[in-house]
Design a protein that fits this description.
By secondary structure, this protein is an all-beta fold. Helix content is 0%, strand content 53%. Strands 2, 4, 5, 6, 9, 10 and 11 form a seven-stranded mixed β-sheet that branches. β7 (67-72) and β8 form a beta hairpin. The radius of gyration is 13 Å and the shape is globular. The N and C termini lie far apart (40 Å).
Length: 112
């Protein structure tokens, strides 16, 4: 059974930082690209960042220079370091593997 469990969300003031974690089990973590998405009510889920098995990364334009995705294959965990947070980063954040498997989502709220 594939499980993805996110943690690290919460409430932060604009300009602050948070680090999200996503622990993965039940699948060959090290062989797969990992992605973070986010969604706000009434809008489509959008890709925030991705990291391949080889460590190559990509980011949405809106977060480039502020967010960093990383992975620890030994811990089967992917991270999203979010700095200089803005009100518009407020969303539910999801981690994803192989497109089909999703975490339960974690709320990030940035107060202006």
């Amino acid at each position: 059974q594939v499980q993805l469990v996110e943690s690290g969300g919460g409430l932060v003031q604009a300009g602050g930082s948070l680090r999200l974690s996503c622990a993965v089990s039940g699948i060959a973590f090290g062989l797969n690209t990992m992605r973070w998405y986010r969604q706000v009510p009434g809008k489509r889920r959008e890709l925030v960042a991705g990291i391949t098995s080889g460590g190559d990364t990509n980011y949405a334009d809106s977060v480039k220079g502020r967010f960093t995705i990383s992975r620890d294959n030994a811990k089967k965990t992917v991270y999203l370091q979010m700095n200089s947070l803005k009100f518009e980063d407020t969303a539910v954040y999801y981690c994803n593997i192989r497109s089909a498997y999703w975490g339960q989502g974690i709320q990030v709220t940035v107060s202006s």
